Fold this sequence. Notes:
The structure is a single chain. The chain folds into 2 domains: 79 residues, Alpha-Beta Plaits (2-Layer Sandwich); 94 residues. The protein is built from 6 helices and 8 strands, in the order βαββαβαβαββαβα. A hairpin with a 4-residue loop joins β2 and β3. α3 runs antiparallel to α6. The two termini are 13 Å apart.
Amino acid sequence: MARHVVLLRGINLGPRNRIAMPALRDAFAAAGFADVKTYLQSGNVVLSSGASAAKVATRARAVIESSFGLDIEVVVRTRTQLAKVVELDPLGDVATTPKRYLVTFLSARPAAAVMRKADEAAAPGERVLLAGREIYAWLPEGVGRSRLWAFLAGRGLGVTATARNWTTVTSLLELAG
């Protein structure tokens, strides 16, 4: 069975879409996933399954819907895929603060026009780079007022997307074993 990293979009960020991590672990275990672990409260789950990443994503979304009544978008990477994301680290030479270095995980590669818009949204000093199904972004001033972050966090990418900072990405890889 492969290790999978399940990334949920938009849970536990304010009063909406609240899911307790122990309940989420229990729901996934009851659905047949093995060795289920969570990281932080923002929808990061590591589990084992013999299914493909795409099937894990579909099943995870269905489990959340049936268990919690929430329609939550899900992006899944295998442990091997996540290791490649970390190994690539294309902005590591400029990203000096891990909490301001973000990886946006995508369900599919976005259109070239979308990436042009991301480039246009970047302020001086910010960097954005598409590699496969991930967008790496360096936001040296943080996410608070960043137009680039607002673009990446919105729905304008045309695909399901959810972002994690570099600290979370590397911690998930470690948790995945």
